[in-house]
Structure formats: structure tokens, C-alpha cells
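Lecture notes, unit on protein representations.

Consider one protein chain, 69 amino acids long.
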Amino acid sequence: MNYKRIAHSIVERLPTDVNNISMSYLNRVIGDRTKSPYDFAKIKEVIVKDYMKQDTNHKTYKNYIKGGN
């Protein structure tokens, strides 16, 4: 099974950017594609690793209090 191809087809059909999608919605969309727990985990891993951006520069309330950006 080509997990990267399936992950790409899921991401391109999402109604908005993949970073704005909740995990519960993502789980439901992946679950519609596969019933195997192993395939489910692999597809989700590809989407989270390759498509979701892990931004480390979050602007939080604590950062503003401390004088951060």
C-alpha cells in the first residue's frame, strides 16, 4: 500500500489547509479510507510528518508578558 499517495490524496481534498484541520476530523477522513489499524497509523504518520508544519515560534500570552516577540 502506498501510504504517501493516499496521504496526498486526503490532504488535497480537505476543505481548508491541513494545519487548520482538527485531529478528530483528520481521524474520520483517514478512517473512511482504511479500516486496518496499521494502515491508519501509517497514513496519519505521513500526514503529520510531511504535511503539518511544526511551528516552534508560537506567539503565546507568556511570551508577551516576558517581553518576547
